[in-house]
Structures are given as structure tokens and as C-alpha cells.
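re the bet — no i am not wrong, look at it urself. input seq straight from the record:
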Amino acid sequence: MTRKILVLFISCLMLLTLIAWSCSETTSVGGQQEEEEEEEEEEEEVQEGQLPTWQVGDQWVWSYVQDSTTLILSEEVIGEETVEGRVCYVIDMSFDPAMSWTQGDIECAVTGMKYWNDKDTVLNGVKHETSTTCNGQVDTTTFVYSYDLWVSIFPLEIGKEVETEITATQYYNGEQMGDPVVGTQTYEVLSKEYITVAAGTFSCWKMTYYDSANDVTQIMWYSDEVKTTVKSTDEDGNTIMELQSYSVD
């Protein structure tokens, strides 16, 4: 039963989408600096909605609603690794307060969580790993994902839609659990609009995400400036995540 609870919890986390954006550097003074800043502003306008890039050290903090309880979710890009032949960003995740639950006389807590996100498509997760401690015993649950097409929603354009078939394979302490689950995930860009959250007001791309395996629809607002989604809701408009603060290069 404990394992089933953990699997449901991780399935909810899979809806978290972490999106990136690269920034330019300036090294000039006086009038030359002003000219270069104008050129950078023009470049940012041209690159708006393009395939983004994360940098090691990028950090985001969200309020995250799980079963009517609001938690603080922190994420940080800690490096790059190749997984299943794909170059991935490695993201460290943590919750405050720490995720924990009790089933009978068994007390469990999440002690670590990492996510490997495909660098070439940004939205496609390749691996998700959660470490838990239950009555002193440490266990690791891992999901590995593969796709029939490694497609990306980028560059973003209003009306653009992409769909791909996803296969999820679950492992518990290194042992495969059951058969792989096959479904589809669909992204569609709906519009552009301004969104205000605790971290500020941002110009965003409004997108929908649909996961057929879990029959879940999510609305997301992605900001080029922040390098990620600043808000997400379910199809009924209930808030799932809102950005509280961020630090990006």
C-alpha cells in the first residue's frame, strides 16, 4: 500500500514542467554600453519563444498544492548527464515541509528527489528518481521515459500543437515493476498574456498540456524571462503551482 501511495504521488509530480531560457552577457562602457544594451533588447525580441537553455545554478521556488495542502517546492539545475542516450539537465527538487505520510504503523518521508530533463526538447522528462525512508528503510523509486518522437513545442507560436507517444517504465530499488505504461502527451500554445504571481508580473505564453495515461489536463503560463512556467492550474482553474521567487543567469 505504501508503494501505491508513493507511485500516485510521483505521478502528480510528473506534471511539473520546467522550461529554460538563455541570457546574454554585456562587457562595455559609456555610449557603447547603451548601444549594446539596445542590440541585446532587439535580440531578445527576435529570440522570444525559441528553444531555451538552462544554466547550472538556475533556481526556482513555487507554492505547490498537493491534496489541498500547500507546500514550498524548490528546484535547482545542478548539472548535465547523459541518460538513455539523451543529454539531460539534472534538477534537484525539495519540499518544505518535507513530504511525509503514515500508513498504519509505517512512517515514511521523501528524503531526495531528482529529475532528468531532455536538453534538446526541454519539456520531455527522461528520468525521475525519488528516495524515501520508511521506518528507517531507504528505498528508491525510478521512472524512465522514452518517446516515439523527440519533438519540441519550441519555437513557440500561437496555435502550435505537438503530440508524442510516451512509454513509462517503473523501477523499485532497481527492479522493474510491472509492464511499461504507454500513453500520449500533447502540448498546445493558446495565446500570450500577462500573469501576476508572488514573484512579479510576466509576459507569458499560455499553453495546455494533456496526459492521456493519467487523463490529466493542465494549463501553464511560461515566461521567457523566468526560464520556466510561472503558474499552472488544472482544467477547472484550481491552482497547482505559482512562482514565489527565482534566480537565473
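see?? Residues 1-32 have pLDDT under 50 and may be disordered. told u. also The radius of gyration is 19 Å. so pay up
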